[in-house]
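Students often ask why inverse folding is considered easier than folding. One informal answer: many sequences map to the same fold, so there is more than one right answer. In these notes we will look at a single instance of the problem. The structure comes first.
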């Protein structure tokens, strides 16, 4: 039986099958995206007329969580006044580098991934955006595990919240969020003050997007 490390070492994207992604835009349009072997969008097909439900909009936010769907719709990003995008997905390309500031960390959504090891770098990016009065969108693939874990960790590290407080705040903003069991346990045990003793004065707390 192969170990996880052996499986990863033997991985080749050429062995992957092409996938389609169903996307719902902020206006309720339903699209089907097909991607090339390199991960780039090569075809977009509209499935239905815009009769579905879109996203609830709140323009007063400076920290938001979403799936990869939202970051491929420039209208959505502009409506939410997003200026910075923290991409912690795997294999999701940043489509608007001329219009937005991106940071990409390809994090695997596996219980054994050390999510806390990424929090310092992610928090620095969010801090820099907020110092510029920017709006930060944190996204992974589904907007469920990785992005929510990063925001929970950020609130613990920068705002001094306990795990339960940070978890509740993110859950209120995005009810569909659900860190995988490994991330959940790591964040429960996370002691940000051990590594952040020298972080200076705290900025005003961020307001987190309710599920867009």
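Output (designed amino acids):
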């Amino acid at each position: 039986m192969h170990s996880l490390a052996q499986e990863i070492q033997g991985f080749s994207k050429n062995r992957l099958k092409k996938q389609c992604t169903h996307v719902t835009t902020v206006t309720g349009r339903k699209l089907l995206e097909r991607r090339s072997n390199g991960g780039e969008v090569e075809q977009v097909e509209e499935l239905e007329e815009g009769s579905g439900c879109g996203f609830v909009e709140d323009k007063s936010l400076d920290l938001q969580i979403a799936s990869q769907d939202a970051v491929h719709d420039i209208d959505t990003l502009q409506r939410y006044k997003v200026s910075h995008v923290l991409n912690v997905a795997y294999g999701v390309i940043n489509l608007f580098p001329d219009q937005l500031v991106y940071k990409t960390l390809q994090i695997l959504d596996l219980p054994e991934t050390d999510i806390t090891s990424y929090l310092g770098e992610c928090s620095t990016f969010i801090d820099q955006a907020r110092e510029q009065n920017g709006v930060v969108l944190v996204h992974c693939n589904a907007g469920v595990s990785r992005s929510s874990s990063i925001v929970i960790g950020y609130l613990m590290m920068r705002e001094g919240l306990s795990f339960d407080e940070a978890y509740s705040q993110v859950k209120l903003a995005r009810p569909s969020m659900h860190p995988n069991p490994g991330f959940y346990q790591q964040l429960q045990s996370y002691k940000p003050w051990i590594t952040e003793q020298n972080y200076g004065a705290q900025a005003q707390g961020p307001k987190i997007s309710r599920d867009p």
